């Protein structure tokens, strides 16, 4: 009965949100070209410089547009840029902007890009996305406070022309420009206590704009009539409801109240053989990252002991997931030189070896001259269905090694803040590839990388990654990346891969033209439409 009351309450809240949203809300809900889906929490701020949450980038990708956009095949295509010219040495990119408008009718100019990008790089912005701009001349130096903004290789030639100079040829640079950190911006002050008016006051240039935000966090988008390519946009409205309860969300889907939903692992098997079930292997891996400041984890044998104490098959079983146990950081779906990276550089997952794990723990503690492990170790985790993962890991490491994990389960944003402050001993991580290159996953362990919250440092590893980045030949780049990954995982045990991540969703068959990206923003709805019955 309590579950039924919860579902009825949520449905009534959705109905109330629809009534309170705008005077046209009823029309929206009955409009044939309305797409409905859920997000797990409220969003009151959309700041391209700061956004790391996947739900923020999802919405940003619908309401804003950069120089490039990912197409239906995950390739970058011109968006705000009408023409792209590249110098012979592939270090100078010149973008001719098309005649595009912001939603209020003001023209989108090269200044909107230059100001936004330099804001992201400004040290005081403290952007977690700043490193993506580092291929640009002096971008890293400016971000680290070593040079002034005018030294950065971002030049406004005129209002319609933006020129970008790179330090060296950068594979996938145009793909980078399709990501949300590279969006143009009109607003640069979104208060920490942002609310619905913060979103409603944003000036946007994408296929959709924000029509309304209700008190419960429901966000309603409408087609942007000033969008340059509006003829390609078929949807009139998109509604994002807030729901973080798996049972409630699946009931909403079954009641035909929403069209797309992530399906929790406990329900996945029941729907796996239905035509509405979709599974995609994302370009990410779930793994454990260590805090290198903790002396206990500075010992390689102890890190290896933890890896050998984990039963990955049991983890996947507990999660009731279609995921597969991982041996490396690079997922099987990522490309190598001629075939999949994992085929060219196989790394089988560690098999649980409890005896060896216990022996390595003892050897490691002897080297540290301690007789017992720390009384408690703080592990950061997510407040979604991966809580089960954290609980199972806690159980396994207690049973096998006698380690006492204290679980701190929190939001992704708060988890990142805790990691930056070093308030953890080990943490569950799932860094998503920002562009289609294995380098983007391995670089997060290089010295000084903003995602290297554990503070891992190894000079030879850094040098191998540099050789990969500087290699003009893909074959050599893959070779260096494979060497780096093998050292990181097999030899140094700096991270413990757990499983390759699959995303499972239910999508009504009437929804057509939507694009699910394995990296970057999760969806593009620019080409989506509702097929009439």
UniProtKB/TrEMBL annotation:
Family membership: Belongs to the bacterial solute-binding protein 5 family.
Q: Which organism is it from?
A: Laceyella tengchongensis
Q: Name one GO molecular function term.
A: peptide transmembrane transporter activity
Q: Which GO terms describe its cellular component?
A: ATP-binding cassette (ABC) transporter complex; cell envelope; periplasmic space
Write out the annotated subcellular location: Cell envelope
What is the first-listed, main subcellular location in coarse terms? other
Residue ranges occupied by any Solute-binding protein family domain in the UniProt entry? 76-450
Query: Keywords on this record?
Result: Peptide transport, Protein transport, Signal, Transport
- GO BP annotations listed: peptide transport
Q: What is the official name of this protein in its record?
A: Oligopeptide transport system substrate-binding protein
Is Transport given among the entry's keywords? yes
Q: Which Pfam families match?
A: SBP_bac_5
The cross-references to InterPro entries, in alphabetical order and at most eight, read: Peptide/Ni-bd, SBP_5, SBP_5_dom
The reply on keyword Ligase is: no
Cleavable signal peptide: 1-17
């Amino acid at each position: 009965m309590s579950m039924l009351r919860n579902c009825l309450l949520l449905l009534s809240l959705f109905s109330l949100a629809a009534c309170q949203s705008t005077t046209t809300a009823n029309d929206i809900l009955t409009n044939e070209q309305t797409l409905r889906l859920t997000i797990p929490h409220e969003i009151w701020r959309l700041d391209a410089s700061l956004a790391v949450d996947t739900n923020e980038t999802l919405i940003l990708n619908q309401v804003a547009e950069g120089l490039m956009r990912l197409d239906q095949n995950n390739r970058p295509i011109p968006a705000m840029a009408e023409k792209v010219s590249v110098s012979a040495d592939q270090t100078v990119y010149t973008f001719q902007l098309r005649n595009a408008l912001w939603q209020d009718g003001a023209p989108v100019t090269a200044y909107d890009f230059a100001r936004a990008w330099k804001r992201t790089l400004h040290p005081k912005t403290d952007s977690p996305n700043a490193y993506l701009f580092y291929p640009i001349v002096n971008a890293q130096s400016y971000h680290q406070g070593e040079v002034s903004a005018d030294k950065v290789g971002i030049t406004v030639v005129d209002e319609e022309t933006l020129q970008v100079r790179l330090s060296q040829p950068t594979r996938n640079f145009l793909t980078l420009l399709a990501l949300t950190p590279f969006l143009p911006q009109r607003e640069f002050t979104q208060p920490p206590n942002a609310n619905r008016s913060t979103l409603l006051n944003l000036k946007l240039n994408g296929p959709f704009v924000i029509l309304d935000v209700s008190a419960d966090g429901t966000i309603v988008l409408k087609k942007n009539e000033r969008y340059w390519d509006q003829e390609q946009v078929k949807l009139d409205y998109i509604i994002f409801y807030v729901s973080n309860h798996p049972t409630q969300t699946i009931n909403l889907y079954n009641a035909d109240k929403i069209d797309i939903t992530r399906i929790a692992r406990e329900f996945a098997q029941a729907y796996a053989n239905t035509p509405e079930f979709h599974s995609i292997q994302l370009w990410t891996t779930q793994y454990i990252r260590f805090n290198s400041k903790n002396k206990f984890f500075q010992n390689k044998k102890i890190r290896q002991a933890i890896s050998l104490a984990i039963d990955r098959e049991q983890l996947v079983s507990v999660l009731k997931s279609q995921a597969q146990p991982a041996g490396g950081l690079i997922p099987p779906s990522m490309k190598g030189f001629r075939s999949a990276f994992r085929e060219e550089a196989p790394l089988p997952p560690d098999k649980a070896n409890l005896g060896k794990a216990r022996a390595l723990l003892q050897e490691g503690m002897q080297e540290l001259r301690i007789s017992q492990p720390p009384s408690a170790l703080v592990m950061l985790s997510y407040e979604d269905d991966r809580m089960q993962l954290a609980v199972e890991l806690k159980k396994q490491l207690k049973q096998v090694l006698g380690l006492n994990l204290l679980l701190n389960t929190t939001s992704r944003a708060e988890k990142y803040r805790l990691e930056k402050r070093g308030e953890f001993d080990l943490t569950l991580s799932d860094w998503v590839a920002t562009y289609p290159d294995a380098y983007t996953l391995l670089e997060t362990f290089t010295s000084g990388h903003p995602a290297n919250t554990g503070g891992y440092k190894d000079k030879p590893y850094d040098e191998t990654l540099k050789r990969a980045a500087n290699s003009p030949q893909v074959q050599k780049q893959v070779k260096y990346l494979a060497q780096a990954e093998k050292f990181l995982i097999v030899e140094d045990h700096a991270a413990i891969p757990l499983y390759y991540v699959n995303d499972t969703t239910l999508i009504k068959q009437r929804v057509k033209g939507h694009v699910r990206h394995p990296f970057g923003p999760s969806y593009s709805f620019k080409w989506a439409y509702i097929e009439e019955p």
